[in-house]
Design a protein that fits this description.
single chain, alpha/beta, 8-stranded mixed sheet, two-stranded parallel ribbon, 10 helices
């Protein structure tokens, strides 16, 4: 009798979780959206709405608002969740603050959000352009409130002081995920360094804000610890949203968090001492940002 080799059945790769119905959004359409589209193109501006594949672009642009991205559209970081292009930036336009300020004035927005790519190759991390953009926007649109979503300055605290000195009402820096996932999600960043940046911003007397993506594999207890760490470092406002994989080259979605769970996390954040929590599957850093201006400092 001949012993035949036992052939093991092939193990199928685990199926990716299917995107649930609550994450479906409308395509951007309408006259207001077209008007913003035209202004962005005419002034040769970058928006994180496009570069980050934001699911709320239709809603926000349809309302005549947008989040502007300064200092080019190529980032020196290679975060595994982000759709913004990575490489060696070539753009450093000292006239950009004027163009952004003029566009915001033309759009007549009541609240503007400004963000940027990381520019680690610049000695001041682009801080002078940051400050000039806020200052000129305030000059041309004195009634407009501003949130700046600033990058990690890699402990260049002099650069941070310049970035946050333009007169903006809200200063945001996203920690993005829980501490245990930093090497996977933000390999060129450090959890404790981002907390320190928030702490220094608060000590300077500013309204502070941060954001976390959910569905990357974090455990609830890890999220609660992150909330506690943020409160301990002076955070006022937290946004919680669902991570969505921008391309197949980026991290897979580990889990789709339900709307009920997002509602629970909002209550938990408030219970732990945060002053305001924006929490939902489609929430992004800039979503309903105009509401955050009134949060007490």
């Amino acid at each position: 009798m001949i012993d035949l080799p036992v052939i093991q059945p092939e193990t199928a790769a685990p199926a990716r979780p299917r995107k649930p119905d609550w994450l479906r959004v409308k395509l951007p359409v309408g006259q207001e959206y077209a008007a913003v589209r035209r202004l962005v193109d005419e002034h040769k501006l970058h928006t994180i709405c496009e570069s980050g594949n934001c699911p709320n672009m239709g809603e926000c642009w349809g309302a005549g608002t947008a989040t502007f991205m300064i200092l080019g559209n190529i980032c020196t970081r290679s975060c595994s969740f982000c759709a913004v292009a990575t490489g060696r930036p070539t753009e450093y336009d000292l006239d950009e603050p004027r163009r952004v300020a003029e566009a915001i004035a033309l759009m007549k927005v009541k609240h503007a959000v400004i963000t940027s790519v990381n520019r680690d190759e610049l000695k001041d991390r682009g801080a002078s352009v940051w400050r000039e953009t806020v200052v000129l926007t305030k000059q041309l649109s004195p009634g407009t409130t501003i949130e700046t979503l600033i990058p990690d300055v890699k402990a260049n605290w002099d650069a941070l002081d310049v970035m946050i000195s333009g007169g903006q009402e809200v200063i945001s820096h996203n920690i993005e995920t829980v501490g245990s996932l930093y090497r996977l999600v933000r390999p060129q960043a450090r959890y404790d360094r981002s907390l320190e940046q928030i702490r220094r911003t608060k000590l300077a007397g500013h309204r502070t804000k941060s954001g976390i993506m959910l569905g990357l594999g974090e455990k609830p207890d890890e999220l609660y610890q992150a909330m506690d760490d943020l409160v301990a470092n002076g955070l006022d406002i937290l946004t919680l949203g669902q991570y969505l994989q921008p391309t197949k080259r980026h991290l897979d979605v580990a889990e789709f968090i339900t709307p009920d769970q997002f509602a629970h996390y909002r209550e938990e954040g408030l219970r732990r001492g945060l002053k305001y929590v924006e929490s939902g599957p489609l929430v992004r850093s800039s979503y309903h940002a105009e509401r955050h201006v009134n949060v007490p400092v």
